[in-house]
Amino acid sequence: MRAVALAGGVGGARLAHGLQRVLAPGELVVVVNVADDLERHGLVVSPDQDTVLYTLAGLADRERGWGLAGETWSALDQLGRLGEETWFAIGDRDLALHVVRTARLRAGARPTEVALELAARLGVPSRILPVTDDTIRTRVRTPDGWLDFQDYFVRLRCEPEVLEVTVDGAARARPTPEVLASLATAERIVVCPSNPVVSIGPIMAVPGMPAAVRAARDRGVPVVAVSPIVAGRALRGPADRMLVSLGGQASVVEVARRYVDLADILVIDEADAGLAGQVAATGIRPLVAPTVMTDDAARAELARAVLAAA
Amino acid sequence: MRAVALAGGVGGARLAHGLQRVLAPGELVVVVNVADDLERHGLVVSPDQDTVLYTLAGLADRERGWGLAGETWSALDQLGRLGEETWFAIGDRDLALHVVRTARLRAGARPTEVALELAARLGVPSRILPVTDDTIRTRVRTPDGWLDFQDYFVRLRCEPEVLEVTVDGAARARPTPEVLASLATAERIVVCPSNPVVSIGPIMAVPGMPAAVRAARDRGVPVVAVSPIVAGRALRGPADRMLVSLGGQASVVEVARRYVDLADILVIDEADAGLAGQVAATGIRPLVAPTVMTDDAARAELARAVLAAA
User: Fold this and answer.
1) Of the candidates B42, B75, B97, which has its C-beta nearest A92's C-beta?
2) Which of B45, B67, B124, B293 could make an SS bond with B299 (beta carbons 3.0 to 4.6 A apart)?
3) CB-defined contacts A:B, below 8 A
4) Could you state, in order of their start, the residue ranges of all structural domains in chain A?
5) Could you list the pLDDT tens digit for every one of the 310 residues in chain B?
6) In what order do the strands lie in the sheet with B127-130?
7) Residue A154 and residue A58 in contact, taking contact as beta carbons nearer than 8 Å
C-alpha cells in the first residue's frame, strides 16, 4: 500500500518510522516541512528533514528526541572558541551531514535530489521529500516583533507568545514534481502528529499542495490525521500554547477544526475519547486509538491503526 | 625586533612558535604556504596554515604533530557512513574551523582577512599570512603520473617517488599587500625548517616574493634559514627522499644549494657540524646549533639562536 505521510519534527518522524515498519520497503514517502530550514555557519541545516531522516535510519537519539544517538559536541565547542554563536547546537555527526548536504547543493543539486541521496546513503528504504525545492521560511510574530522560526524555537526556547505565523516565500513556492507524483499515486495520505501550525501548516501553505491532496481524496484516497494534542497538551513542543495564543484551544477539537479541509479522519488518543462527539461535529471523523508512541512497537501499532482507519 | 618567518607544516610551525615566545607580541609575521590547500567535502582546508595557527595558539596535538589536542573523530565516522572518502582525516574541532573559514570566504572575505581573523579569534599574538590570496596548488609527478599534493602526501602516505614538482597557478599569483608590507619593514627574515621543495618552494614560487626578499637583504636584513635535514634525515615528512629523487642529496649541503639565492645563513644541527665547510663552499654561511625542537624551551632556544645569528 503506497502511503504519503506529511511530517514535521519528532512526533511526525516517529509515526513515519512506524509506517516504514509496517509497509513494504519503498512504499512510504515522507513529505517534510522545510520552512524551519536555516543557514548556520554557512551550512544548510534542515531540522525537520533530518529528524525524519535520522529516525527512519534508526540513528536518532531516543531520549533527546532530536539529533543522533552517540553524538559528540567537539565542533560546537570549537565554534564557540572561534567566536561563533552556539545556541543552535549542532553535534559532530550532525555537522558532517550538513557539510555533505551543503556541498551537494552548492554543486548544483536540487534539495530533493540531495534528500533522496542522503536517505539512500543511510540505508533508508523510504523516500524523504522536501515539500518544495524553493526557499520557504516560517516566521512568528511575538509581543517583541517578528522572529525567524529557529530564533523563536531554539534560541528563545519557544518562550515568547506567538501571535501570528507566516511562511515567507510560500506564495512563490511550488511542490516538487516528486511530491506531486507521490500524491497522485498514493493509496493513503497520513498527516503525522506534528505541529499543525508550524509543521503541517507550511507544507500545506505551498500553493498546489491543497489541490493535490484534494485530487487524491476525490479519487477515494483517505486522508488520516493524527492529533499531536493529547489531553490538552502537546507531547513535545509548543503546539498547545501556540493554538491558544493564536486564538483557539489546546484540544483535539481545535486540531479537527484546523484539519477539516485537509483530512477525512482524525485519530485522537484514548484520553480524548470524551471529545469524539465534538470532533465529529466539526465534520471530521474521529477515531480513538492509543497515540502515545512510547517504543517501536507503539509506533508500528499506531501506524497500523492509521492505515486501517479508512 | 620585527621578524617575518616563512613556514610550511609541523617543523616550520614549531620554530614559528619559538619565535613567538621570544619576540614581543605582534612582532612576528608568519608567511605560510597555501599550495597544499584543498577542498574537501565542499570546505576549504589549509593544512600548513592550520598547523601554524594551532601551534601558535597552543592548541596543536604534540604527539601527532598535526591537528588539535583533544581532537575527536565523530564527524569523520559519519562522513564515512555517508559514503564520503575519508582518507583525509578531519577531526571534529578541525572541521569547525574549516566550516568557519569556508563561510567567511564564501561571504567574500579574502583568504588573508580570514587568516587574520581566525588567528585573532584564537588569541594568537602573531599575524599568520597566506603568501598569496590567489589559488596555487602543488602537484607532484610520480612514476604513475601527476598527483595532487594531498593525494601524494596523505592518501599515498608519501610513498611514490617524486620525480618533478610544479606549483599550478604560481605564474599568475601575486603576494598579498600584507606580505609585501611585512617584508618591507622586517628586521629579520627566517626560513623555517620546512620542506624546501614543497613548503618553502611554493612560497618563493610566487612572482614578486624573491624580489621582495632580495630588497630586504639589500636593506641589510639578514635572511636566516634552518635546515630541515639533520644527519641526512628529515625529522618529519618526505623532504629527505624528495631531495634525492629530484636528483640531489639528503643533506644540509643540498639544502644550502637550494637556499643560496634566498638566505645569508643556514643553521645546521650539531650532528652536521662536519659539513659546515661544504655548506660554506656553496656561498651560504653555516651556523651550527641544536635544531631538534623537543619541547617549548628548545623551540625558544633555536629561535634565539636564529635571531642572534645575523
Assistant:
1) B75
2) B293
3) 104
4) 3-37+44-58+123-308
5) 999 999 998 999 999 999 999 999 999 999 999 999 999 999 999 999 999 999 999 999 988 878 999 999 999 999 999 999 999 999 999 999 999 999 999 999 999 999 999 999 999 999 999 999 999 999 999 999 999 999 999 999 999 999 999 999 999 999 999 999 999 999 999 999 999 999 999 999 999 999 999 999 999 999 999 999 999 999 889 999 999 999 999 999 999 999 999 999 999 999 999 999 999 999 999 999 999 999 999 999 999 999 999 7
6) B127-130, B28-32, B3-7, B188-191, B223-226, B265-268, B285-288
7) no
State the smallest CA–CA distance between residue B66 and chain A in angstroms.
16
Beta strands per DSSP E along B104-158: 127-130, 137-142, 145-148
The answer to whether residue A143 neighbours chain B at the CB level (below 8 Å) is no
Using a CB-CB cut-off of 8 Å, the residues of chain A touching B104 are 42
d(CA A144, CA A163): 10
Q: How far is A44 from chain B (nearest CA, A)?
A: 11
The DSSP bridge partners found for residue A191 are A6, A225
The architecture in CATH of the region B3-135+172-308 reads: 3-Layer(aba) Sandwich (3.40)
With a CB cutoff of 8 Å and minimum separation 6, the contacts of B211 are: none
> Cell 551537494 belongs to which residue?
A104
Assigned superfamily of A3-37+44-58+123-308: CofD-like domains (3.40.50.10680)
Interface membership of B100 toward A (CB under 8 Å):
yes
